[in-house]
Amino acid sequence: MIADSAGDFRAALPDGGRLAGLDVGSKTIGVALCDAQWTFASAAETVKRRKFSQDLERLKTIFADQQVAGLVIGLPLNLDGTDSPQTQSTRAFARNLDQALDLPILLWDERWSTQAVERAMIDLDVTRKKRAAKVDAVAAEYILQGAIDAMVAQ
Question: What domains can be seen in the chain, in order of their start residue?
Answer without folding.
Answer: 2-153 (3.30.420.140)
